[in-house]
Design a protein that fits this description.
The complex is a heterodimer of chains A (469) and B (410). Chain A is built from 16 helices and 21 strands. With 469 residues, chain A is of the alpha+beta class. Chain A has a domain of 247 residues: 3-Layer(aba) Sandwich (Beta-lactamase). In chain A, the strands form seven sheets. Chain A has a six-stranded mixed sheet, with no helix packed on it. In chain A, strands 10-9-21-20-19 form a five-stranded antiparallel sheet, with helices on both faces. In chain A, strand 9 and strand 10 form a beta hairpin. In chain A, helix 7 packs antiparallel against helix 16, helix 10 crosses helix 15 and helix 11 packs across helix 15. The longest helix of chain A has 37 residues. By secondary structure, chain B is mostly helical. Chain B has one domain. In chain B, strand 2 and strand 3 form a beta hairpin. In chain B, helix 3 runs parallel beside helix 5, helix 13 packs parallel to helix 15 and helix 14 runs antiparallel to helix 15. The chains are: A alpha+beta (469), B mainly alpha (410). Chains A and B meet through helix 1 of A and helix 9, helix 12, helix 13 and helix 14 of B.
């Protein structure tokens, strides 16, 4: 009997443990898993909220409607009056296909949450009115977006334009694109298309930056002060048994630093990178947040700089001309360029300018955040070289009469064999108002030939109409 | 004074909870439906009267019935909130259950020598299994229901009790069944029947009851350990011969792989629990009706969504107190037959609770079995009340001669 009692007590302990395991597992689930699980598109609760909510509208910085909700007798419908113009950046909100772009990452604001209106929500629920969402005012300028979209039509690539002083995104176009009003008809084609029309190349397309990255290297050489930039270019250089050539094998002759940037001399930059050494190269690359989280209020792919510890001589040479394993998104490249337009201050990207509550109260959007990455004197010296690159160098196609443009071209080799055409720049050089980054994917032409004219047209139009209005 | 009025006696807590729950439900459903407070009042009055009888007639343990009533109230409220029809039906079943509770109490005391009918228990169990096979209709992939007219019931629920009596009578008179091997063989016959009905939850439960009691009373050590080998064999064989076992197992390992198909039930359940958070979205404010079978197998997920996992934990703790009372009773009984019956009933409801709650929260593979006293269903509800009516009768005997302390007495 005694032994039986002992064994029954074992059973009690066992049952205790079973019940305890339920309690522990529930707590674990709630703390570590629930957050990810409830946002799964198969969780219909997310859409149920939509039935009681009038989703807020989305406007550009001047009040042009980009997305709006119509109330119908049997529910609401979301419409995008400009069709393809904003496809990736503003995205879509669809019961069937989920959410993307601004519609996804500001969902809570658009649904009326996260502005401390819980009392108002309860009142609205009780009076059986629909909950009203907040309206968003973005940093975009509709005119610039329309211009950018028309310039890129028929191409594959992206245009990103920012305000160098605030980090405000003024325009962002990615091609190929889609019409958010027609998702139901186009969806199958969109997801099967190998050109990935649903991908926002502006924030999430990662490309080797090519020669546009030489602006960063130029700053590094100026900062170092102990590198002799004088060089006799023969059109090729051999590093560790690997021969690197200039574009078209051109021998540029005798060059200083300014001329090397103007003609985009690969061999001199590769040589100077050897003298800089891996420590200083890695330091400045990371200072521009390449391979790091960049901040800002919209999700973007982290640029890649997968080197740590030490770099081989050939790797240094490749990175100095924006090749190798270095990969950067067009938005990131625009932000880097912005630092040279803004006395060495690099901005965090910003898309949300203001929130308007249903009561009409205006709330500040994302704060403007700047970070000093370069000394002003160095930034301005590089800027002057970028002016020269446009006036007399590879960027001549970006010249605008009456306005001084600063910029840098890039022709990035990649695995496909067809090179990407890059141009990054800003205008006017003495008081920069707009920074633009243009990439044409697998264009097969140089940045100067293909990307610079697009950047020129965009900047000309922007300065003519007014960058901010 | 007020505190004393509310908390003075456990039954007052029950009344207080029911006033809160049914009041909330009444205010929530529009247009206001006067039948809700009436149903709530009827249910509460029934509970108070039944409790009064148990206390005044000194029927033994005074907690068991109270806990069953709290669980049943919660079940009725959740069911009413899901579908008023289920709620009203469940109140009816509760009423029938209470009657059977007292009837079981009386009959169990009235018949003196329950331990003598070992053969009848085996014959009865097997007969019911055969009836299920011949008359059974398949519901949700398991052939474990018998339909008589408009009325369906699940024989396995009754077999559960007969099975406990069979095990108890064996250990009272082991010599009646040639040797332990015959006994163990008969146990596995039950389990194989259940597996053939594709009722894996019940099979698991029957095995758990057996192995636990056998752990306490076994004589042959070798045979005891062999059981673990048997169960592994059964699991492997059923995994490879029965596709639904595979499906359940895969849905447990990674339900996210096939959310729209195999993983549908469990992922919907996890969405509900995740949405509820710690404190729940509030009674009537969630969407538990997105979960299939929410009124039976998945009612715990609905509780977690609307009352939070703190609500869910409270339910688990209530079951724990209930089972603790059961263990306590079985420890005080000296006579082996009665002791095993008490232990068997306690283990049944402990394991059943764990199997279904563990299943819907994805702690263990999901098998369809009801959450005792909360899930919708007459068979489970009435059997539950019969089982605990027997436990009540056993508690009276176990406490006889001891001083019965009136719960919360003045």
């Amino acid at each position: 009997m005694e032994e039986n009692n002992k064994k029954i007590i074992h059973l009690i302990i066992f049952v205790c443990l079973l019940f305890l395991s339920i309690i522990i597992y529930l707590t674990y689930f709630q703390i570590f898993q629930a957050g990810n699980i409830v946002t799964n598109p198969y969780n219909r609760r997310q859409w149920q909220r939509e039935e009681f909510t009038v989703r807020g509208n989305i406007y550009d910085r001047n009040g042009v409607v980009i997305a709006e909700t119509y109330e119908l007798d049997d529910g609401t419908t979301r419409s995008y009056p400009h069709n393809r113009t904003y496809s990736h950046l503003v995205g879509y909100s669809s019961r069937q296909y989920g959410r993307a772009g601004v519609e996804a990452f500001f969902n809570e604001e658009l649904m009326g949450a996260s502005t401390g209106r819980s009392v108002a929500r309860i009142v609205e629920r009780i009076t059986s009115d629909k909950v009203k969402g907040n309206h968003l005012y973005l940093t975009l300028n509709h005119q610039l977006q329309v211009t950018a979209e028309s310039l890129l039509r028929g191409k594959t690539g992206s245009i990103v334009a920012i305000d160098p002083k605030t980090g405000d995104i003024l325009a962002m176009v990615s091609k190929p694109d889609f019409n958010p009003n027609n998702l139901a008809d186009d969806w199958t084609n969109l997801i099967n298309d190998e050109a990935s029309p649903l991908l926002n190349r502006g924030t999430s397309g990662l490309y080797p930056p090519g020669s546009t990255f030489k602006i960063v290297m130029t700053a590094a050489i100026l900062e170092a002060g102990d590198i002799d930039p004088q060089y006799e270019c023969t059109g090729s250089i051999t590093i560790d048994g690997y021969t690197l050539r200039d574009y078209g094998g051109t021998a540029h002759g005798n060059l200083n630093l300014r001329d090397s940037l103007v003609v985009s001399c690969n061999t001199n930059f590769a040589r100077m990178a050897q003298e800089l050494g891996d420590r200083r190269v890695m330091e400045i690359v990371k200072r521009f947040y390449v391979g790091e989280a960049i901040g800002g209020d919209l999700p973007m792919a982290r640029s890649r700089f997968p080197y740590s510890g030490s770099m081989e001589a050939t790797e240094l040479a490749a990175v100095s001309i924006g090749q190798g394993k270095l990969m950067i998104s067009p938005l990131h490249m625009a932000l880097i360029t912005g630092a040279f337009a803004n006395d060495g201050y690099m901005m965090e990207p910003r898309i949300l300018r203001e929130i308007e509550t249903p009561e009409g109260r205006l709330l500040e959007g994302t704060p403007i955040i700047s970070r000093k990455v370069l000394d002003a004197a160095i930034a301005n010296e590089v800027k002057n070289m970028m002016v020269a690159a446009v006036n007399e160098g590879t960027g001549r196609n970006a010249r605008i009469s009456g306005v001084q443009v600063a910029g840098k071209t890039g022709t990035a080799e990649n695995v496909t064999g067809e090179s990407h055409a890059w141009f990054v720049g800003f205008a006017p050089a003495d008081n920069p108002q707009v920074v633009v980054a243009v990439i044409l994917e697998q264009e097969g032409k140089t940045g100067g030939a293909a990307a610079a004219p697009i950047a020129r047209e965009f900047m000309r139009e922007a300065l003519k109409r007014g960058v901010l209005n | 004074m007020v505190k004393r009025m509310i908390l003075g006696r456990p039954i007052n807590i029950l009344i207080f909870i029911n006033i809160l729950f049914f009041g909330l439900l009444y205010l929530h459903v529009e247009p206001y439906d006067i039948s809700i407070p009436i149903a709530g009042a009827a249910l509460t009055i029934l509970m108070v009267i039944a409790n009064l009888i148990i206390v005044k007639r000194k029927m033994g343990d005074q907690y068991i019935f109270l806990i069953l009533s709290v669980l049943s109230s919660l079940g009725v409220i959740m069911l009413y909130r899901l579908n008023p029809y289920y709620g009203f039906r469940q109140i009816t079943w509760y009423g029938v259950g209470v009657l059977l509770y007292f009837l079981a109490y009386l009959i169990f005391n009235w018949i003196k020598r329950w331990e003598d009918y070992g053969y009848f228990y085996i014959a009865g169990g097997i007969l019911l299994f055969i009836l299920t096979f011949t008359l059974g209709t398949a519901v949700k992939g398991a052939t474990n229901w018998i339909r008589i007219g408009n009325f369906t019931f699940q024989p396995a629920e009754i077999i559960k009790l007969i099975y406990i009596f069979f095990i108890a009578s064996y250990f009272k008179y082991p010599e009646k069944f040639k040797n332990e091997y015959v006994f163990v063989g008969l146990i596995y016959l039950h389990i194989i029947f259940l597996a053939l009905q594709r009722d894996m939850g019940m099979a698991m439960l029957f095995y758990g009851i057996f192995i636990s009691i056998y752990y306490v009373y076994h004589k042959e050590k070798k045979l005891f350990y062999l059981n673990f080998l048997f169960v592994i064999l059964i699991l492997i064989v059923s995994y490879f011969t029965m596709t639904h076992v595979q499906v359940r197992f895969e849905a447990w390992l990674n339900p996210w792989k096939d959310i729209a198909g195999r993983g549908y039930q469990i992922t919907q359940s996890l969405f509900a629990i995740g949405t509820g958070g710690f404190f729940g979205v509030g009674l009537g404010l969630g969407s538990p009706d997105f979960i299939p079978e929410v009124h039976t197998d998945f009612i715990f997920s609905a509780i977690c969504e609307e009352l939070g996992i703190f609500g869910g934990m409270a339910v688990v703790l209530l079951y724990f107190i209930l089972n603790y009372r059961g263990f306590k009773i079985s420890l005080t009984i000296q006579e082996p037959f009665k002791r095993i019956v008490a232990l068997g009933i306690t283990l049944t409801y402990s394991y059943q609770t764990f199997i279904i709650i563990g299943g819907v929260i994805k702690l263990i593979p999901l098998t369809g079995i009801t959450l005792p006293f909360i899930s919708y269903g007459g068979s489970a509800m009435t059997t539950g009340f019969i089982a605990f009516g027997i436990l009540q009768a056993l508690s009276k005997k176990s406490l006889e001669g001891e001083e019965i302390v009136e719960v919360g007495g003045e």
